[in-house]
Amino acid sequence: MLIFQIYYILISKYQGCRLQALTETWQDTMRIRNVTNFSLKYTLESGQSFRWTRVDDAYYGVVKGRILKIYQVGTTLCVESSATEDETIFVPFLRHYLDIDRDVPKVLAEVDNDAYMHRAIEKLWGMRILNQELWETVASFILSQNNNVSRIRGIIRRLSERFGEQLTLADYVDYSFPTPDVLATTTEDELLACGTGYRANYLRDTAQAVASGELVLTSVKQMPYLEAKHELMRRNGIGEKVADCICLFSLGHLTALPIDVWIKRIFETLYLRRRATHHEIREFAHAYFAEGVGYAQQYLFHYVHECPDWADAEHLSLIEADVGTAMKNRKSPLN
To answer: What's the DSSP call for residue 125?
Structure first.
């Protein structure tokens, strides 16, 4: 009898502890419900950010000094954070970061100008453009020049390990991106050891400009698109493509059009059907896609990476061959 009493007590304590653990796990997971027309997968895997890693069905990333774990169940986002969060502040922050509150279906309807674009939108429905923290975005795209995603991720990881702060979420470990003040005091050799290559001086010079107040990022946030772009381009190492990446992926300027080798190839192959300068591509794209050109290019960019036969005869037939000529005299929204 005594044995059974002890067994019952132990089982009761075990079940009580297990229930408490389940309750604590539930409390630690924030749920953002009714998130419609949104794909976490396409948003985080479309080359906009270099800090997200997929583990099973969840994504782990460092956002503004904390690790986030996010997974999507239908129209609900389940979120865990390495920081203690006030949900009344954190949820609006995350909704802005993921661009959830923008009427993206309306933006996409305005750029759905041909059957090719329509197919890309259908395939990638729910992809959003992130609104990332400005300083890390500036630094990341300085490092992106003449680089590939794998190497960029590696450089950012090494910089963060060496100069950032360690962060943990359960068993997952990552590091905050170093502040401008910290990177401003580094040596070229220290940055080169992280794999930055010739970009080391560009990164350090920009960090010093931010740390000294020469480049005021809070002011850049308030500027209209062209003014912000030109202000960023005053820095060595920030050319037109990098400035447009910053404007699109951090500042929310949807008229920004970053032209890299892929975007150049896409517009030359699909729309212009000839070799073209960056100026010609920009003029056409702004006239054709107007104020939603940033979203249009992101859908095209990710579609061609998802679809190996993106430029075969069947795909090319989806766009009128003379669309470039037809759009020649259409006015750009930037004019």
So the answer is: T
Query: pLDDT of 55-110, one tens digit each?
Result: 999 999 999 999 999 999 999 999 999 999 999 999 999 999 999 999 999 999 99
Residue 5 counted as domain residue? no
Give the residue from 199, 225, 249 where a domain finishes: 249
Residue 138 sits in the same domain as residue 244? yes
69 close to 80: Cβ distance less than 8 angstroms: yes
| 107-153 residue pLDDT tens | 999 999 999 999 999 999 999 999 999 999 999 999 999 999 999 99
270-322 per-position pLDDT tens digit: 999 999 999 999 999 999 999 999 999 999 999 999 999 999 999 999 998 76
Q: Return phi, psi of residue 140, to 5°.
A: -65, -40
Residue span of the structural domain in which 275 resides = 103-122+254-335
**67-75 long-range contacts, Cβ below 8 Å, gap at least 24?**
67/167, 67/168, 67/169, 67/172, 67/174, 68/94, 68/169, 69/169, 69/172, 70/40, 71/40, 72/35, 72/38, 72/39, 72/40, 72/41, 75/33, 75/34, 75/35, 75/36, 75/38
Same domain, 92 and 152: no
